[in-house]
Amino acid sequence: MKMAGRYYAIDGKNYPSVTSILNVLNKPQLVNWAVRLTRDSLKQELFALQRSDSLQDLNIGSLLAKSALEHNRVKNVAAGHGIDIHSRIAAYLDNEGNMAYDQDPVIKAFRTWQDEAQFLPIASEKLVISREHEYAGTADLIGTLGGRLALLDIKTGRGVYPEYKLQLAAYAAAWGEMTGHIPEVCMNLHVRNNFSVTEANVFTAAELFLLFQTFLAAKQLFEWLSIQPKTGQNVAVATQLKQIVA
User: Looking at the DSSP assignment, which residues form a beta bridge with residue 187?
Assistant: First the structure.
């Protein structure tokens, strides 16, 4: 199995990733976040020039270009942080008896939650595939919570949003297809910057069907967008149509 861009290459076939499919959803909070970062970057740069009495050296084009890329820089830092948290928890679960993890604040917080929730791991960072619906993804944690089969996805950003339920539903349905056992409970584990761990977006198997149908609707939109011509192609088609009409 190889991950290439938005697809998993499995047995000679490309399966779109769950996260890529869900990128079709409108996320207005991300637009506001990017605008805020751009504004704050501009303010910081201008204040620094003002304090150093160097406004005469201001290069507007360079300043705007740098500020416009600030959200990408912050996003990449956050992604790296998230990957680090995921890998530390996965490594701990693979070596639960290893005393080296005792001083890791992330693992301390996770173990506290694990003990209170009575979570027993079955698998971590598990590839899940729906061959029936043709998608794939990587489920962070599968195990039991108080004896009930559970699927969990770790989030490390500032917020945990309702659309994450669709990601959980897609993973849970794929796991059920692969194993014959539908998770009885799904949830996000939110690992905050202060290393506290909280539960979010908890739902049971009774809610899975409607959530999964919504995910499949998003997949239909993803597939439709994937076959649309690019902007340049649209212009070319429009030009050809004008010539035909003329």
Answer: 152
User: Hey, which bits of 45-204 come out as E strands?
Assistant: 119-130, 135-145, 148-155, 185-191, 197-204
Strands 135-145 and 148-155, how do they pair? Answer: antiparallel
**pLDDT at site 245:** 45
User: What is the amino acid identity at position 214?
Assistant: T
Provide the angle, in degrees to the nearest 10, between the axes of the packed helices 164-179 and 205-226: 100
Rounded to whole angstroms, the Cα distance separating 140 from 153 reads 5
**13-16: strand order across its sheet:** 2-4, 7-10, 13-16
Long-range contacts: 180-186, Cβ < 8 Å, 24+?
Answer: 181/149, 182/149, 182/208, 183/142, 183/149, 183/150, 183/151, 183/208, 184/148, 184/149, 184/150, 185/145, 185/148, 185/149, 185/150, 185/151, 186/150, 186/151, 186/152
**Cα 242 from chain centroid?**
43
pLDDT tens for 184-243 read 999 999 999 888 999 999 999 999 999 999 999 999 999 999 887 765 545 454 455 455
- Report the predicted TM-score, pTM, of the whole model to 2 decimal places: 0.78
218 CB neighbour count, 10 Å cutoff:
18
Q: Helix axis angle, 60-68 relative to 70-94, nearest 10°?
A: 30
- Run of H or E including 16: strand 13-16
